[in-house]
Each structure stands twice: as structure tokens, then as C-alpha cells.
Amino acid sequence: PTSLISFLMNRTSAKKLVLFVIRSMIEHNNSLFSVLTAFDRVNNAYNIANKQIEQPGNSANIDILSTKSILQRSVVDQGDLMASVFDPLFEQQTASNLNRLMECVRLYVVSLTKHKIRVSTALTELLIKLFASCNCMHQLELCVRGGIIMDSLVIARFILVLPNASSNLKNLGLDMLHRLGAHDEIMNYLIDQKEAITICNLIRKRYITHFSTKRLLELALESKDSHIFFTVYNFLIQRNFALRRTSEFSKDDDCDFFVQYYKENFTSKKVSGELF
Question: I need a surface site. Which of 87, 149, 240, 274 has the fewest CB within 10 A?
Fold first, then answer.
């Protein structure tokens, strides 16, 4: 099949046939090495075509007709494979065959990365959905750590809103946001998840200064867990002292209600040392 792909890519208007062969290779369980070789040839042809069109020295020598001929001859891009191969297979796959598709999509992303072609957001999202469907969190983590799945706000948000996402997968999304310096995004997500203690840990570890003290205390109170409120309140008291040399909240914090609530419910308790 790989020889057939090479032959077809030298013909004009053979894109549909190339896509058909690649889809057949995936469906009929050709070796993963053969599938990767097919992807490499397609991506190499894509790069060659782009260089012929974009090379400054050739701009005067390539007219509209020759450019059209180059594009018609062999160029298969990510959009073509998504529309004609990956998306249709994903929609019709049974659980037993999803692993096969996952491996093939992963190999395509590997090939794109090797050929220095930017991986589209849509393709990355599909790969993540396949990893999640196959419960291959370790492989997903390796792809993120190894740079096969590149950090981006869009991808991090996509990971965090995946239905039935595991805690490990959510942590991958949060780690990605952290590497991007998107601490506000992290805070907003944790607030939505009502993770008051986790937010305190994040504030301490990342030295975050801009956040709503009032909203954090509201989350702690909404938990209806006295230990959580006590812990969060005293964390903020310690933080106030570290920043301003006073344990009191500022007027802008608007925390009078919580101060009074604490006095009424926790005055007998004492706090010593750091809470986290």
C-alpha cells in the first residue's frame, strides 16, 4: 500500500484515492510501521509542495496554473484526513477497535511533528478523546510531556471539560495551564469545582496575589465543612500577615461577615505554624 500511495501522489487529482488507501490500511490492520510510512510520505509531499509554492526565489516562475497543478497532484493535509478518514472511523468504531484508531492518529501526529508541521487543534482534540475513550491516560501524559501534544489554552480547556475526565487527566490540563502561566484560568476552574483547599495550596505554591478573598471564603462556607472554613480562614489570616504585617482583612476584601462568623464559631480554636 505504501508503494501505491507513492505512485498515486505523482498523479493529478488522486487525493481521494490516497485517502481511500490510507483508510483501508487502518481498517484492514496493516502494520503500524506501514501506516507510519504512509503518513511520512504524505507529509513529506505536503512539505515539498508548500516549499515549491512559498519559496521566494520561485515566486516569479510559478504561475497560477502551475500552483494549481502542485496542489492537485498530491497534497493531503490534516483537514483531508480528519474529514475523510479519522472522523468517520471515530464515529463508527466499536470499543474494541478504538485502540487501533488511537494508535494510528497518534502516529500521524508523530509524523507531523517529525516533519515540523503544526498539529491542528481539531486533530489534537480527537487524539485526546481517543486516549480518554481507551483509558490510556499514561500515554496521553507521555504525549504531553514529550511535546507531541503541545501546550495551548484551547487544549487545556478542552481537557478540563471532557465528560467523565479522570482526576489525573484534569491534573494534566491544570499542569498545562500552569506552564502557560494562566493562573487566572486555573483559579476560575478550581472555583467552579469548589476546591477551596486546593486553591489555597495553589496560592501558596505559585505566590498568586490577585484573587477574590471573599469568593474563597464563600466557597469554604458553602462546603458546610467547618474544618475547611477554619483552614481557609486561617490560611488567609497568615497570608495577610505575611504580605501586610497585619492579620486583618482590608476594606476592599469585604470580609466583615466572615470575620464575625469565625469569631462566633471558632474563637476557642488555636492555630500554630503553617496550615499547608
Answer: 274
